[in-house]
Amino acid sequence: MKINSYVVINIITVLVNILNLYAFRYEHGNNEKKSVNKIFVVAMFAMNIILANFIVYIYNGSNIINAKLMILISMMWPIAYIDFKEKRIPNKILIIMLIARAVILIPELALLGNISQTLISMVIATVAVIIACVLCCLIVKGAIGMGDIKLFCVMAIYLGLEGIWSAIFCSLIVSFVIAVFSLATKRVNRKDNIPFAPAILIGTYLSIFLTGI
User: Fold this and answer.
1) How far is residue 176's CA from residue 179's CA, in Å, rounded to a whole number?
2) Which of 111, 116, 178, 189 has the most crowded CB, counting CB atoms within 10 A?
3) Which domain holds residue 137?
């Protein structure tokens, strides 16, 4: 049974990462100046496959849940890359993520049950994230961009109440470390905006790695 889980999760992870390559091309067209770094592509495949096998081995969750997590984390890689390079989060990839979530939600509800609990968790998590982000923007102007808010909402739909807060917490810690390092090495100054999506990717990766959800 576990062998089948490894096969399923690796196939899904590889397919989603191949889709990511098309997502890059779709966003950048044929612009050679915006071609994706090959080292980044190798890292994306390697890190996602490592995480996929790790969560199967350690947490032994259902194939549906593992697939959901790997679709989320895999599709966050192109978002993080584009945000790092261009300081924007592409809506098209977010829409693809929502479509993928809708597709995998059907077997998730059918096989795992708890339909009302799952849907309520998704809705409450999304609303809570929106409220938290709005409060952050009111307290500190420009603390978080609209693209980041939309990304957090998509994450909430994937992770629900069980996983979203640990992912956000880890993301904030990673963001703080990156900001301190960037300021200490004078890569940026206090007035510069640091792309948040790379920290969200790393934080979510760590959250899934540490909790399995």
Assistant:
1) 5
2) 178
3) 5-211
pLDDT tens digit sequence for 4-55 = 889 999 999 999 999 888 887 777 654 545 667 788 999 999 999 999 999 9
Domain count, the chain: 1
Specify the length of the chain in residues.
213
Q: Which two tokens stand for residue 92?
A: 């098209």
Return d(Cα 66, Cα 59) in angstroms, integer: 9
Rounded Cα–Cα distance for residues 128 and 48 (Å) = 28
Q: How far apart are CA 169 and CA 67, in angstroms?
A: 23
**Distances in whole angstroms, Cα of residue 55 to Cα of each of 61, 63, 106, 194:** 8, 10, 22, 30
Cα 1 from Cα 184, distance rounded (Å): 50
DSSP three-state, residue 192: coil
Q: Please provide the DSSP assignment of 38-63 as one string.
A: HHHHHHHHHHHHHHHHHHHHHT---H
Instruction: Please enumerate in sequence order all residues whose Cβ is within 8 A of that of 27, keeping only pairs 6 or more positions apart, or say none.
Output: 78, 82, 90, 92, 93
Q: What is the mean pLDDT of the chain?
A: 89
